[in-house]
Amino acid sequence: MTATEAPPQTTPLKAKQRLGDIVFSRTSLASGAAILVILALVAVFLIAQSLPALVVDPEKFIGSPPSLWDYVWPLVFGTLWSSALALAMALPLAVGIALFISHYAPRRLSQFLGYIIDLLAAVPSVVYGLWGIGVLAPAVLPAYAWLTENLGWIPLFSGPVSGTGRTILTASIVLGVMILPVMTAICREIFLQTPVLHEEAALALGATRWEMITMSVLPFGRPGIISGAMLGLGRALGETMAVAMVLSPTAIVSFALLQSTNPSTIAANIALSFPESYGVNVNLLIFTGLVLFVITLIVNSIARYIVNRRKDFSGAN
Which residues form the ABC transmembrane type-1 domain (predicted)? Predict the structure, then answer.
């Protein structure tokens, strides 16, 4: 080929797609689209079934509340209050257990503890409810009495203390135990993915193991911690049987943790009231389900926003 001749034109080679790749790609696309469709159908169903409750006279509702929101608001408060208490108790324990498994425990012990954590995550909620009624509620009565006697001046621990132990605090403890394995498993996997170079660099600079964890592991795992916390919070918000079995609910708004009158949650109220409801009361319960649907969607959206702000940190996301 002389210097004046143009190089021959070559057509770009295209990789031949195999049948398995095509099937997997289209199946994944269809599955993702199906999730959106199902979510939209659930939202449409809840909205359509809730409309009669928005236009009917509140006197036809259970208990004849002054307005629709007077019925819904105590349930929303109880749902958020019990879930927040459960998250506040379970999250520090989940992070601590995950750090122990990933960076402190011997290899055999960490494998055994990881297996136990995964097993606890699969325990049905009704089992936790039975444990809360039969074991936890009687066991915490002396502690509740001590709190009321010594810290009763704080509104959270004001009396009179419940004689059965079935209080909002007991239900929150049960919820915290339920969501603990899920959050622990997620935090553990995130901590194990911390780049080894980051850990070795901190140790090489003279940091102790705990200083290495605070400088490398926890900042790297922050998105995972948030994701695990929001996943656990989502389960606590929607938990039904454990709360319905443990709690003795009333339609009130109260921050007191140890009294016999406690706010109920949306999910537990639906489970307890649905068998005896008829007519517009069924639509009322579906409307409370719509409110819970919106709350859960908002919580997950906030969590996704927080995680996305940290996704550029060392490839953590």
Answer: 76-303
Cα–Cα distance for residue pair 172/157, rounded to 1 Å: 15
Q: Could you give phi then psi for residue 309, rounded to 5 degrees?
A: -70, -20
**Residues 244, 67: Cα–Cα separation, whole Å:** 25
Q: Per the domain annotation, does 52 fall within a domain?
A: no
- What is the Cα–Cα distance from 310 to 317, expressed in whole angstroms? 8
- For the record, the structure tokens of 292 come out as 């819970």
Residue numbers of the domain that contains 237:
68-309
Q: Which residues contact 116 (CB under 8 A, 6 or more apart)?
A: none
pLDDT digits (tens, 9 = 90+) for 115-139: 888 888 888 888 888 888 888 888 8
Task: Say if residue 315 is exposed, middle or buried (CB neighbours under 10 Å; 0-12, 13-18, 19+).
Answer: exposed
Which domain CATH number covers 132? 1.10.3720.10
262's enclosing H/E stretch is strand 262-263
Read off the pLDDT of residues 169-214 as tens digits, 9 standing for 90 and up: 888 899 999 989 989 988 888 888 888 888 888 888 888 888 888 8
